[in-house]
Amino acid sequence: MPHISAAAALQICALLSAFPAQYFISQWYGTDSAQRILLTERVITSWSSFTKSCLSLDAWADCLKLWLSKTRTCLNVGLLILHFRNWYYGEKKAKSGDAEAETHSYFAESTHVRSPKPEYIQFSVGQVIVHKRFGYSGVIIGWDVKADTPKEWLRHKYPPATQDLKDTPHYRILINKANGFGKSTAYIPQEEITIIMGLEVHHPDIKTYFSGYDGTKYIMQPWLKKIYPHD
C-alpha cells in the first residue's frame, strides 16, 4: 500500500469535499449548470488556497520561522530594555551611594583622617580646656582647620565685626556637666580656648570617645585615634 503523507491526505479530503459542496450549492442557488460550475470553481479555488496556506507543512514552517523571528526580536528588545533599566537604576543607585558617601559632617564630626596636622592647630583631641569668656570646662573631641558649619550658623555666630574668626581653627568640645552650663557640646574658635590639667570632665558620652584620663589629657579610643593620628 503506497504511503500517503498527512499533507496529501488533507488535500485529497479537501478535493473530495468539493462534490458535496457542489450539491449544496445547487440546492441553494438553483439548477442552472453554468452557475453551479462557476460556484464550484470558486469553492475549489478557495479550498486550494486554504490548503496551500494552512494545510501545507512548508507554509506552517514559514509561519513558524516568522513567529520565531518576531519572538527573538521581542526578546532582544526586552533584554535591551532590561539592560537599560538595570544600568539606569544601577547608575542612579551608585550616584545616590556616592552622594551619601560625600554627605558632609559639620562641627568637627567628619571622619576623614586629619593628617598631616597643621602647625597652627595648637591643641589636641583629649586635652581639657576652659572657655576664656564663659568659664566652662570641657574636653576636645575633634577639630577643623577652620569653621566647618552651615552658612546660616556662621552668619549667626560671626557678625561682620568677627568674620575673621570663621577662618581660624575650631574645636568640638564635650562640656563638663559639673559646670551646670546647660549645653552638652560646643564648637568654638581656637582663640577662646585655654588648656587646664588635672581636671576630669563629667559627661555621659565621655567613654564613647576616651578610654581613660592620665592626669594631663584623655586617652582616645582606637577609632578616634585613627582620625587624629598625630594628637
Automatic annotation (TrEMBL):
Source superkingdom: Eukaryota
Give yes or no: UniProt keyword Signal.
Answer: yes
Start and end residues of each Hemimethylated DNA-binding domain: 120-221
SUPFAM superfamilies linked to this entry: YccV-like
Record carries keyword Nuclease: no
GO molecular function terms attached to this record: DNA binding
Q: From which residue to which does the signal peptide run?
A: 1-18
Pfam families documented for this protein? YccV-like
What the entry lists under InterPro entries is as follows: Clp_protease_adapter_ClpF (IPR053189), Hemimethylated_DNA-bd_dom (IPR011722), Hemimethylated_DNA-bd_sf (IPR036623)
Q: Which UniProt keywords apply?
A: Signal
Gene3D superfamilies noted in UniProt = Hemimethylated DNA-binding domain
**Which PANTHER family did the record assign?**
HEMIMETHYLATED DNA-BINDING DOMAIN-CONTAINING PROTEIN
Instruction: From the Swiss-Prot or TrEMBL record, give the protein name.
Output: FBX21 protein
Q: Which organism is it from?
A: Ramphastos sulfuratus
